[in-house]
Amino acid sequence: MAKSLNDWTYNNYQNWQGAIPFGTFYPEEGVFSYVKEAVEVYGFLGFKLHCEVSKLNLNDPELSDCFGYLEKKEIPIVIHTGTAPLPGEFTGIQFFKPFIQTYPKLHVIVAHMGAHEISAYASLLDEYSNLALDTTMVFVDFLATGKETDVDEAIPLLERYKDQIYFGSDFPNIPYNLNHPISKFLDLPISDKAKQKILFENAKNRFFK
Predict the structure, then answer these.
(1) Tens-digit pLDDT profile for residues 96-134
(2) Full domain range(s) for residue 80
(3) What SS3 class is residue 192?
C-alpha cells in the first residue's frame, strides 16, 4: 500500500503549486527498493510516518536500510511518534530514544511537538542537531491532541529552539479553518524572529536550498 501511495503522490502533486512531495513506507518486502525509487526517480524531498495509525515500530530491523539511506541522503522524515491524541503500541519517547540514538544524524521532524510528551522530545534537541519538532495542533483552541496541551510549557521552547521548530497544520484534514492555527501562532508571546523562522525560514532553508 505504501508504494501505491507514493505512486499516487508522484502522479498528482504537481497539480498543486508549491506542493512538496513526501512519500511513506512500511516494514514489508521491497520497502528499501521503493524508498530509493521515491528519492532517486520521483524526486521526493521527504517522508511521513505515523507510528500509531500504521502500528509501526521505528526500531524494526526491516527498516534499518531505509533509515540509514535517508540519513546519508539527508532526506527528512516527519514522524508522528507521540502519544497524542491516543497512544499506540509503538508510540512514545521510549521507542523514539533508541531510534534517534541509532540514527543520530537523521533529519527527523517530530509531529505535534511530540505531544503528550513535549518536554521529553524537546530534551533531545540540544544533543541531536538534525532533530526538529512541528507545531501541528498544539497552539489551537480545538483539543486536537485529545486533551489540553500545556501551552505554558511549550511556548518557551519556540524561542529557545527557533531553528529546530517548524510550523505545522495537518492541512487539509483539520477541523477548523487554516487561518485559525496561523493567527493563534502569530499571537504567541515570542519574538518576531522566532515567528519568521518557524513559519517560513526553516522550511525554506530545508526544502528550497
Answers:
(1) 999 999 999 999 999 999 999 999 999 999 999 999 999
(2) 2-207
(3) helix
The pLDDT score that the predictor gives to residue 153 is: 83
Whether residue 25 has pLDDT greater than 80: yes
* CATH code of the domain containing 7: 3.20.20.140
Please check whether residue 51 is in contact with residue 80, taking contact to mean a CB–CB distance below 8 angstroms.
yes
Cα–Cα distance measured from residue 3 to residue 58, given in angstroms and rounded to the nearest whole number: 18
Per the CB < 8 A criterion, the answer to whether 91 and 112 are in contact is no
Q: Where are the beta strands (DSSP E) in the chain?
A: 22-23, 46-50, 77-80, 108-110, 131-134, 165-166
Rounded distance, CA 178 to CA 172, Å?
8
Q: Is the pLDDT of residue 145 over 60?
A: no
Tracing cell 540519513 back to the chain, one arrives at: 71
| C-alpha span between 155 and 187 (Å, rounded) | 11
What torsion, rounded to 10 degrees, do the Cα atoms 187, 188, 192, 195 define? -100
Count of domains in the chain?
A: 1
In the chain, the amino acid numbered 76 is: P
Helix (H, G, I), strand (E, B) or coil at 71: helix
CB 167 within 8 A of CB 201: no
Residue 103's closest CA among 62, 64, 133?
64
Share of the chain above pLDDT 90, in %: 85
Cα–Cα nearest to 71, from 99, 41, 110: 99
The C-alpha atoms of residue 96 and residue 84 are separated, in whole angstroms, by 14
